[in-house]
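Section 4.2 – Deliverable D4.2 (structural model, holo form)

The reporting period included a commitment to supply a predicted holo structure for the target in complex with 6-phosphogluconic acid. Inputs used:
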Amino acid sequence: MNEASPIAGLPGQTVVKPDVDSLVETVADHLYVIGAEAIEARGVFDIALSGGSTPKALFKRLVTDPNYRAFQWDKTRVWMVDERVVPADDERLNWNMLKGFLLDHVTLGENAAFQMKCDWPDGDLQYEHAIRETLATRSTAGVPRFDYVLLGMGPDGHTASLFPQTHVLDETQALVKYNTGERVIEPKHRMTMTYPLINAARHIAVLITGVSKTEMLRRVSGGAEDARELPIMGVRPTEDDTDLTWYLNAAAAGD
Ligand code: 6PG
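Output (structure tokens):
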């Protein structure tokens, strides 16, 4: 086994907590404060959330823990980082997870939950249009800035639906794209936010738990490979004031 630290070379800040419970509590605490600050500064909190299974514990915590009862959901807009192209009733649909664990339990303002709809060939363009229109006054160099983007990491080093060796990794203009390719994990067809959009966010949180992710973190932290092979390495803030934080439990961090 490789003994190099699995986290020493990660860019930005790293938070390690002993277990998933204390980790999601920390993420929820930060999210709560960041939300309040965004609402105070700009009147609304725009968050983009990933799918997969890791965020479930965070969403559950946010909607059940009385400490977060004052979360201003009515001033929060919820967006999706990525979606799987599967039927509407498929449990792998990220939207269904988001609804079940978060959206069905909070009261957002009107039209404040933005589903990535994959029914049409130009679904990606439509989502980009909704982002550009809604965040029109909050852009940098023509790229809208989300207040908060929550990412995960797959076993192959993918993040969002940015998979190894896929064409979307090279995207410099489009903010949202359909993605597919040999290295895309089932379901093979996805829609995803691209690097330019993710990297312009004010806060980027990467939530990773479990020992099954440690070796991949070691490769990412080691820096010998690149984003083409380990797409999460392409998560690099483009703005100086962006805060990139890796939230890991001890098992993922190799402790
Ligand atoms: C998706 C994701 C994806 C996810 C990672 C981690 O829809 O597949 O958004 O990028 O965050 O694959 O997934 P787990 O949390 O299930 O390990």
